[in-house]
Write a structure and sequence with these properties.
single chain; four-stranded mixed beta sheet
Length: 313
């Protein structure tokens, strides 16, 4: 038995020690254009039909689709364009704390991006658009729950969401494809570009079941949201990066010890609140005050309560 365990550990170590790709130093600069004529001229070479690599890099670095670029707004521009978007990751290529975890998703509200790791090795870096001020995406530990190839929102039937991966059943929070404007804008969800959403849809794993067929709680691919967006100053930290050498340095030492996310009960649709287990209800009822006391969110933050399902905003 001891030998078998030792072999397992060696296997995990081998997975973690796999050689990661070596990327060159890529420097960034910020450019602006006074008018639409100059901006449109600049954007022509980034048309996905002209150069898909350049389009993907520019859109990812700026966290927005080309249709949302505007005159006089800053655009971050790299000096090198590579197909592998991990070259532009704000997350480290290796995550020692995750070396025993087969699959892990790490999300940053601050940098509007996420990373996917396999045994601590970065396998995907992608842009993200997380929750807006009144419906933020809260930090903490979640897990993938269920997926749907083409989802129509339970809150608003006009919201069509391809490649949905739910990570919180009661709030409806999910990864999915939707418009990417370059700033936090979602209803607690994590938006992605189409290509990233499709990749994650196929890569992620839902919860496992026990011998009786019951779902094992929190057994889907873990999702760790490591920070909270500053809705007072509205910084765009991703536009302040000077090169691809700057990395997030506050990943939790052990992601599986991160506390499950605290979510204010206001974000649970009224008709679903009865589904909250009695022993957990107090966490939802006191979540806002707890987050304020910890300094995670400002006391003056005004939350938008979730409407009843299928009721439009």
């Amino acid at each position: 038995m001891l030998i078998f365990f030792f072999i397992i550990i060696l296997g995990f170590s081998a997975s973690f020690s796999q050689t990661q790709p070596s990327f060159p130093i890529i420097k960034y600069k910020v450019v602006k254009f006074d008018n639409y004529a100059k901006l449109n001229s600049f954007l022509r070479e980034f048309n996905p039909n002209v150069n898909k690599t350049k389009y993907r890099v520019l859109a990812t670095l700026n966290r927005k689709e080309l249709r949302f670029f505007r005159p006089k707004q800053p655009i971050i521009l790299p000096d090198t364009f590579l197909d592998d978007l991990r070259a532009y990751s704000v997350f480290p290529l290796e995550y020692p704390g995750a070396k025993l975890i087969p699959k892990l998703i790490v999300v940053s509200n601050v940098y509007q991006a996420y990373a996917c790791y396999e045994f601590g090795n970065l396998v995907r870096f992608a842009a993200a658009i997380t929750g807006k001020k009144s419906t933020p995406t809260y930090p903490g530990r979640y897990s993938l729950q269920w997926r749907e190839r083409l989802r129509i929102s339970s809150f608003n039937e006009s919201w069509i969401m391809p490649f949905t991966w739910n990570f919180h059943r009661l709030t409806g929070s999910a990864f999915h494809q939707f418009e990417m404007p370059g700033f936090p804008a979602s209803h607690m969800c994590i938006r992605q570009f189409h290509e990233d959403a499709e990749w994650l849809y196929n890569w992620g794993e839902g919860p496992k079941r026990d011998s009786t067929g019951k779902i094992i709680p929190m057994s889907g691919t873990p999702v760790i949201i490591i920070d909270f967006y500053d809705f007072v100053n509205f910084p765009k930290k991703w536009l302040e990066l000077e090169s691809n050498q700057q990395k997030i340095d506050y990943l939790p030492p052990d992601p599986m010890k991160v506390e499950e996310a605290l979510i204010p009960i206001e974000h649970i649709p009224p008709e679903l609140r009865s589904m909250i287990p009695k022993k957990e209800r107090i966490r939802y009822e006191t979540a806002f005050d707890t987050l304020v006391a910890r300094g995670v969110i400002p006391r003056g933050l005004r939350l938008r309560p979730s409407n009843s399902l299928k009721k439009k905003d």
